[in-house]
Amino acid sequence: MYDFKIAAADKAALYADLLAALDGLTAGEPDAIANMANAAALLWETLPGINWAGFYRNVGGELVLGPFQGRPACIRIPFGRGVCGAAAESLAVQRVEDVHAFPGHIACDAASQSELVVPIVRNGELLAVLDLDAPEKARFDAEDEAGCVAICRLLAERL
Ligand code: SME
């Protein structure tokens, strides 16, 4: 049984604890789907105020839904489409304060108001993107971005 008690006083400590927990959960496990599934569950359980946490995998140049927590989501996203597709195409983090103002945003859950998408890249190749959605505008700040970038750097070695 895994029972992580993450109740950090501030965001930096929260993400440090999250990263340590994820490191422990994925160490020595070579299966990418298992590691993404546990990462989605851990993020979902730990981060307050989110309504979706999960992954889209790069399958032959198209994003395909991977392990996640939250409502059922759209399955395939072409590179360049929506927030996830923009992250996949540019290999740059997309931190969107208001998804309704983002051109081509794909609404999987009408409740989503803001979104953070972080590419997971190994040796210059996109493996997947981490996608977090929140039902509140501007839910994600620079600390969330830095924390998720660190998580994705770890995952790049575990997928
Ligand atoms: N909103 C995303 C689609 C994925 S869902 O949020 C789970 C986008 O615009 O890429």
Automatic annotation (TrEMBL):
Residues spanning the membrane: none
A single cellular component GO annotation: cytosol
Pfam families per record: GAF_2 (PF13185)
Highest taxon of source: Bacteria
Residues of the GAF domain: 61-146
SUPFAM superfamilies per record: GAF domain-like (SSF55781)
One function term, GO molecular function aspect: L-methionine-(R)-S-oxide reductase activity
Record-linked InterPro entries: FRMsr_CS, GAF, GAF-like_dom_sf, Phosphatase_reg/MetRdx
Homology family: Belongs to the free Met sulfoxide reductase family.
PANTHER family: FREE METHIONINE-R-SULFOXIDE REDUCTASE, GAF/PUTATIVE CYTOSKELETAL PROTEIN
Descriptive protein name: GAF domain-containing protein
The organism's taxonomic lineage, starting at the top: Bacteria, Pseudomonadati, Pseudomonadota, Alphaproteobacteria, Sphingomonadales
